[in-house]
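Entry: AAA+ ATPase domain-containing protein
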Amino acid sequence: MVMMGEMWNLGSTMGTLMLVYTLFRQFFPHHLQLYFEKYFRKVSGFIYPYVEITFDEFAGDFFKRNEAYSAIKSYLGDKSSASAKRLKANVVKDTESVVLSMDYNEEVTDKFEGVKVWWSANRTLPSTQRISWFSDDDEKRSYTLTVHKRHRELITRSYIGYVLKEGKERATRNRRRKLYSNNPSHDWHGYRRSKWSDVPFEHPATFDTLAMDSNLKEEIKNDLIKFSTAKDYYVRIGKAWKRGYLLYGPPGTGKSSMIAAMANLLDYDVYDLELTAVKENAELRRLLLDTSNKSVVVIEDIDCSLDLTGQRERNKTEKDKKDEDRSDPITKKIKEDEKTESKVTLSGLLNCIDGLWSSCGGERIIVFTTNYVEKLDPALIRRGRMDKHIELSYCCFDAFKVFAKNYLEIDSHSLFGEIETLLGETEMTPADVAENLMPKSNNDEVETCLSRLIEALNDAKKKKKAEDEARLMAEKKEEENKEVKENGVATAADEVKENGVTVSH
Ligand SMILES: Nc1ncnc2c1ncn2[C@@H]1O[C@H](COP(=O)(O)OP(=O)(O)OP(=O)(O)O)[C@@H](O)[C@H]1O
Ligand SMILES: [Mg+2]
């Protein structure tokens, strides 16, 4: 086994050779340089029998960090804190834990199947000083792996793969989950330099706190767990490891809460995609491709945020268009700006989803929510894009029992029977039920909360009855008017016949 000191001696010999080589290049003609270079490689290969592999922080896309670099960083984290002499400490935001990593130009060793390897962290500073808004902005960072060339095969074939896998797993274990929201595109290369902004994801909703039909809840939980563990299955059937959910129902029925519960169950990040801030289809595609594995991509209120300007334009009447032409210049300008604000189209969104499905390897879930499922284009929600359609509706007795357990810590009560009947006769959202059950003061007893809910349910029942009656009256009146009209036409026709006049239409 080659010892560290030995490697450094070889390193300094190499340094001398490099110096000679550089001088040679400056003073000798080109054809001699090529000749010398050939022999230089041979000699250095003989004296310095190591292979060096470098992993740059940014490879290819400048705005996307090289995944290998990040994985190596987390793999080396623990090893560095045990053996490196100079360490960098980072306090993870909002937590008290400190993450240690090796400082630049430090070196740590690792062993794999009895073979020793050396890792070093490198940093290259820019040659010219520039004023920059960003710290560390122009530095080039990398890790270098050094290994004896006789182990090259083992290291490239097995060790690197092992390091990347271990590093990714370690990063997943230590990571804090995040809630991302998309930045407007002028920020992508500007101040923030990122397509997404993130905050820690700390929504407390879980499937235990979700009030809904217990069978449906179990079905959804099983579906999610099955999906998250079905990598091999998806490979076998040749389908991308993705799943789309459509959550629909009236406001306050728990759609957003369910998204949080999904992310918490699977330990995924959440990407909250605000479509109205996306200017065009190409931007949408870049945003989606920049999401990470193990994430839920959410588009809330899809019926409102999807720009169907084309459709609306087509449906405009001639009068609308004339009115628009006549409006003052400022109104005209605002209207034009509104039109150009978002050009994401339905077909663009469909293409992006399909593109996301086919171009990103890891598991991803995409969720759409809407209050008006009937408004959505069937192409958007067909199976394969939105695999599971889940209706979240008004509060049922099952859902109420979840609230009673969570809010009041009770499983049964003499008032439960009355509440069950009333819930069957009214339409109250889980949000309203929850609001009524919440104790309003420290003195509020369980009975007070339940009675308040009963009162609210009775009010809702009365309101619904009054509305039903008003609707029936209106329908009856309309029917009567129709009859009067029809009779009137019939009488007129009879009179015409009697007078012997023929009317041609
Ligand atoms: N099924 C539910 N289980 C538990 N809590 C619920 C449920 N539905 C609503 N809530 C409560 O009501 C509030 C509103 O719920 P949520 O935001 O999930 O509704 P939503 O369906 O997303 O509404 P919207 O359509 O307006 O976006 C939440 O704070 C949540 O605590
Ligand atoms: Mg919501």
